[in-house]
Amino acid sequence: MFNRSDLTPRRADEQGATIGDAALCPLDGSVVPWPFDPMTFAARITRQPVAFDPELGAEALEQLPDMGSEVNALFHAVAGCSPYLKGLMAREGEWIAAAMADPEAAVATEHATLRETAPDQLADALRRGKRRIALLSGVADCGGVWQLEQVTGALTDYADLAVHLALRATIGAEIKRGKLPGAVAEDAERAGGMVALAMGKMGAGELNYSSDVDLICLFDETQFDRDDYHDARASFVRATRRMSTMLSDLTAEGYVFRTDLRLRPDPAVTPVCMAMAAAETYYESLGRTWERAAYIKARPSAGDLDAGARFLHTLRPFVWRKHLDFAAIQDAHDMRLRIREHKGLGGALDLAGHNIKLGRGGIREIEFFTQTRQLIAGGRDTDLRVRGTVPGLAVLADKGWITPEVAEKLTDHYRFHRTVEHRVQMVNDAQTHALPKSPENMQRLACFLGRDRAELEAELRQRLEEVHGLTEEFFAPDAADPRAIEEEVHFDPEVIRRWGSYPAFRSPRAVEIFERIKPRLFSQLQRSAKPDEALIALDGFLSGLPAGVQLLSLFEANPQLIDLLVDIVGTSPSLATYISRNSGVFDAVIGGSFFAEWPGRAALEEELAARLVADPDYENKLDQTRRWSKEWRFRIGVHHLRGLINGDEAAEHYAELAEATLAALFPAVAAQFALKHGPQPGRGATILGMGSLGAGRLNANSDLDLIVVYDADGVEFSEGRKPLAARTYYAKLTQAMVTAVTAQMPQGRLYEIDMRLRPSGTQGPVATSLTSFRDYQMGEAWTWEHLALSRARAVAGSTKVADDVEAVRRAVLDLPRETGTLFSDVSEMRDRIAAAKGPAGPWDAKVGAGRLQDIELLSQALVLATQSDTRSTRDGLLVATTAGLLADEEKERLLMAHDLCWTVQMVNKLISNTRLDPQDMGEGGREMLLREASEPALDVLEARLAEVTAEAAAVVETVLQRNIAA
């Protein structure tokens, strides 16, 4: 917020540095007094853009109140250069006109209003506020009313407020639902002990015009009892994700800020909000130079600011080394090279499309130059520990680390670059840093800056070259030698030697590319917990590649994919095998949405259906469905492997993917079948998902249990070139659907299908009429079939038939039952299951007393006993507890065992579809298993699994016998 006493924006540096008595305009060098006297907007205009498209400017003025000639001229010019700001003027015309009397007061009022906004109205209100702040700061920037630091300060202040209010709302919702242990409503203001640390430009108070906000979210675990830790962490993780969604989602009202949570410790394997103690441990043992540099700008911005300050205090030894840390120079240089390599920003300077942030002579060069010097000596001299780039340059000059002349030049260039960056982003609110490529758009930029185009281009080139010259001299690059790295880490030469015989390295071009990426590859292997294991896993991946040039070129252009590859091959052989045979999946990784939020079933079905409709060839439809589905399954697996989602979320995603696949594919199969035999007679057919699919929870290797029910509605034959009797029609249509899913094609098969749960099992028809289905379920079905029906759910086909099937299911669940008989049947089933197949070992999470199958069987029995319609194992136990069939303690023991078994099962099926043996799964797999189960060691986890399943088994037996005797 602005300090109304002097209108100076909050400073970002810890030492309380303030802007001097005057500031230089970065474009024309004019002296602008600071701080400004409080006066109207018009009286403070110091520069004037030129409308690139005067007609657009005129259209904007027609929608705005008259604000006087000087302000009207500025708005005309701004709208004539920026379609985005013109659009904001149309939406916020009345507000911006009123703000002209006192822009700082308008900002303060907007902030105050938002603080009083109800949580259910906050998302839209924040978007409206963002529009207003964006418009005001944009026009104030263009007119010189606010200088750079005030513009970035206003944007940062709003980001702080938005994050805090979103966090307050989402934590408040958790508290209201009783999900945050021990918290009361008043605790929402400090986010229940959680803090969002602002990183990067947000931390320094330097947000650019279309900036993401980089956050690290942590919670103070000392505020919770040990037994409440896991519940608290889960609550904070949910709140963080919802906060991010509230800010990032694009709605009809726009968006607030794109949020990036990936700067946290080891984001591949850690939740989006983690305990401060865990973060401290990570930085103490594994923290890297780039993370030290990132924490120079870190600042508590939302939530529990005191807890955040305490955390940063404990982290000072990590960030600020006691000795002069000249090793940071090489690390920073390597970071610069990786950025250039990743973004393709090497080579000679070409203004067209030049990246003014990351490219030669750009903003990042100045920031790295400043931060690296701070890291070198900041451990000894606390005065160097300032957050902002300009204050950092000033204190470095004051302390003699750089000359005043260099500090002055880089400060001037930094302000100029940032101003140009803002204009580039203001055109369409794009998070871009690239200068225009076309002469026309370069002319637009020149107009936006009120400059002659030729003069602007000459000045840009001169400034970029001077920044490059001033900063490049500081870094001394040494080319990485893969052989030296090989020798240093002592990789097995026999393994590396045999790579030359693999198909991927047949061509000299592939070998040449591989030699260039070896340094990063070996470096990532060395960082893994067990480099030798990771090397063997990588060897398996490379041996499976049919060719190398395309994939290796992709790795060279996108080095971050190497990091992902090492993660995968070191953890999940099944995923590694998949990518060795489907390397094109990496295209999806670099496409920009691979790590986005899960889109949901409806969006998935719509996407696949559109693809299938667009392809007229049926075989292509089937193959394309396989390719599409496997890419999404790979995505779910990687998200689970990297800790972006947990086992429960992965299970839901796998189930939604299967549903979407069936729902989009069935119409294509039916249409192909209809070409020969005519449309479906009567009302059509619906596909029921049974078992885990019906319950909406699958693992990475789940089969699909399906039943097909149709309603011919009195129609005896289909109408086609080769008509079929209705019963035969639906039987053959079902077989066609099963073939479409299970057939082995170039892209493999989609799923294995099991239809044994249909009426009369394998003796019955593959498709059942609605009448037969109703009669059988109401009069002939056995108890086990009613247990299975409790989880049935329509996943594809006719919605009308699905409604009737659901009515049958509901009627079956409502049938009165003799409790003793029901539970006696279940007990006998349990004994038969145990006799037929025992657990495959102590790590078998599915089969055995007190494990998944056992607990789910009991839950289904309780659903029948209580006449509930839930399909969820968890909800079935909760309903039974409410009905008095389970004691609270029994319910908790069952849920504890079920949750742990499910976690183990999900990890097992992701890593391998064979029997789980942690000793054979590799270090990466073991680490994932322990992370997901929240246990420190395998022996501890094994003991816990044995303990909770034994307790659950006793509960199952007790509940069964108690109800048999009832």
Would you give an account of this structure?
The protein has 966 residues and is an alpha/beta fold. Helices cover 58% and strands 6% of the residues. It contains 41 helices and 14 strands. Strands 5, 6, 7, 8 and 9 form a 5-stranded mixed sheet that branches. Helix 32 (726-742) links the parallel strand 11 and strand 12 (753-754). It is globular and about 90 Å long. Mean pLDDT is 86; it is low at 1-38, 323-327 and 476-480. It is an enzyme of class 2 (transferase).
C-alpha Rg (nearest Å): 32 Å
Mean pLDDT: 86
Strand residue content: 5-15%
Q: State the name of the first-level CATH class of the largest domain.
A: Alpha Beta
End-to-end separation in angstroms reads 68 Å
| CATH architect. name of the largest domain | 2-Layer Sandwich
Helix content: 55-70%
Q: How would a textbook summarize the main sheet?
A: 5 strands, mixed
Poorly predicted runs are 1-38, 323-327, 476-480
CATH topology of the largest domain: Beta Polymerase, domain 2
Note the overall shape: globular
> Any idea what the CATH superfamily of the largest domain is called?
Beta Polymerase, domain 2
Count of DSSP helices?
A: 41
Summarize the structure.
The protein has 966 residues and is α/β, with parallel strands linked by helices. Helix content is 58%, strand content 6%.
